[in-house]
Write a structure and sequence with these properties.
The protein is mostly beta strands. It has 2 helices and 8 strands; from the N terminus they run ααββββββββ. It has an 8-stranded antiparallel β-barrel with strand order 1-2-3-4-5-6-7-8. InterPro entries: Atu4866-like_sf, Uncharacterised_Atu4866. Pfam families: Atu4866.
Length: 120
């Protein structure tokens, strides 16, 4: 599977709050795992690095010091804050106070409907 490393801008018109809600979530997603599935523990080292959606709209950098920076194409102000690993999820805590859960699934991150893969 190959992904393009060229940036792509989404020209959908949304206000900043809508974009933040879409890109960074803010509400926990419903867990779709079967009840019998055992959660796998993800360590911080497994998620550290640069991630981006296949279309390039969402980019996320998880740093080893527990901080992150995120960008959404077309949004003027980038998101930043801290994160921690909670079982098989990562929780972003934005400087504005917003908390966003991210699920780690098969080497990808799922955040607010976006699948993020390791960046090029």
């Amino acid at each position: 599977m190959t992904t393009s490393c060229e940036p792509r801008v989404d020209f959908t018109v949304l206000d900043a709050a809508s974009i933040l809600a879409i890109a960074m979530g803010g509400t926990p997603a419903v867990d779709s795992r079967p009840a019998s599935a055992h959660p796998r523990v993800v360590t911080g080292a497994a998620v550290v690095g640069a991630w981006r959606s296949a279309d390039g709209v969402v980019q996320l950098k998880l740093r080893v010091d527990g901080t992150y920076a995120g960008e959404v194409a077309g949004r003027r102000q980038p998101a930043k804050g801290t994160y921690w690993v909670d079982g098989e999820s990562v929780v972003l805590h934005d400087d504005s106070g917003l908390q966003t859960p991210i699920h780690v699934l098969d080497g990808e991150l799922e955040m607010a409907g976006h699948r993020l893969r390791p960046a090029c």
